[in-house]
Amino acid sequence: ECYQDESAIYMLLEIVQGGELWSYVYERRDETRGFRSPLGGFVPRAATFYAGCVAAALAHVHACGVAYRDLKPENLLVDAEGHVSLIDMGLAARVAEKTLSRTSRGGTDCYMAPEVRWARKRRTAYSFSADWYTVGVLLYEFTHGALPYTNRDTEPPQYRGGTWPSEEAKLIGESLMVQDHRKRLGSGPRGALEIKEH
């Protein structure tokens, strides 16, 4: 909420006591809760929980006709109960439902979907698919404690591989990171339901 008097504008914001999700992934803040894996990243139940929270938030944003386009752990805050809040809508863009309408490059390089990274070069439009790609990158980061790609400026980027906690985790993570946005999980006619049902 915003308030104004003769000399100032006041913004009233919700307090999100847990801080950025980034610090949980990289600063080992959550070791006392048993969420950390000794190999890096979260234990599977924590990775599933956080990825599910992110997917639910994006499904809501998409239902409002908005592509978020800047998903990263720094833009996810953790509340006192451990739930995730999506912040910083600065790069979000309105899109027509089920229409590939965006052609601009926007976001953070290491989380950027290929259709966004190469938008100008390929001259192809994109929509919600870019956000689902980033959920895959986050799931990899949550389970491995590192980003999934090296040499991101090459087409296609070099995938690190690694040991996923389960075949199901590998399947959903790699299905979300498919380089062709038309074949990516969540990009079909059922959208977010494909991801929720996995």
Structural class: alpha+beta
Secondary-structure element order, N to C: EEHHEEEEHHHEEHH
Query: How many E-type strands?
Result: 8
- Percent of sequence in beta strands: 5-15%
How many helix segments? 7
* Largest pleated sheet: 2 strands, antiparallel
Distance between the termini: 37 Å
Poorly predicted residue ranges: none
Helix content: 25-40%
Approximate shape:
globular
State the strand order across the main sheet.
1-2
Q: In angstroms, what is the radius of gyration?
A: 17 Å
- Write down the overall mean pLDDT: 85
Task: Briefly say what this structure is.
The protein has 198 residues and is α+β, with helices and mostly antiparallel strands.
What does this structure look like?
About 35% of the residues lie in helices and about 10% in strands. The mean pLDDT is about 85. Strands 1-2 form a two-stranded antiparallel ribbon. The chain is an alpha+beta fold and about 200 residues long. Strand 4 and strand 5 form a beta hairpin. The chain starts with a strand and ends with a helix. It has helices spanning about 20-25, 45-65, 115, 120, 130-145, 165-175, 190-195; strands spanning about 1-5, 10, 65, 75-80, 85, 95, 150, 160.
